[in-house]
Write a structure and sequence with these properties.
It is built from 2 helices and 9 strands; from the N terminus they run H-E-E-H-E-E-E-E-E-E-E. The protein is α+β, with helices and mostly antiparallel strands. The longest helix is centred in the first third of the chain and has 16 residues.
Length: 120
């Protein structure tokens, strides 16, 4: 009987631990402050939550709930080649298929910039 409850518990809790909404390749994001004046000189109450983002081809998936973001693609010369506003309820962004190669992906939210590299 104990084994039955253990197996039942594992069967119910395992899907909660897995990211079932994630599609494509997970993008490892770093975070930096881009506007220190908006934060002020008070210490932060806690760490900022880094969004969970993945990519499959030219489709960008935002796998976590999020506020309004601005998504940018930046080339090797630090030129913003593509920029799009992503509303709060949107979970996918279609990137233009005219670009190929490695780009820096910036996700801007208020004073924060989450960034990582994507291969298109």
């Amino acid at each position: 009987m104990k084994r039955f409850f253990l197996i039942l518990f594992m069967a119910v809790s395992l899907p909660m631990c897995l990211n079932v909404n994630a599609q494509g390749i997970e993008i490892s994001l770093s975070v930096q402050i881009i506007d220190n004046s908006a934060i002020g000189n008070k210490p932060a109450r806690g760490p900022v939550a880094i969004p969970s983002v993945s990519i499959d081809g030219y489709t960008l998936y935002i796998n976590s709930s999020h506020p309004d973001y601005t998504v940018q693609l930046v080339d090797e010369d630090d030129e913003v080649i593509y920029e799009v506003f992503v509303a709060e309820n949107v979970s996918t962004v279609q990137l233009p298929a005219v670009y190929s190669g490695e780009y820096r992906l910036n996700i801007l939210w208020g004073s924060w910039c989450f960034w990582g590299y994507v291969e298109l």
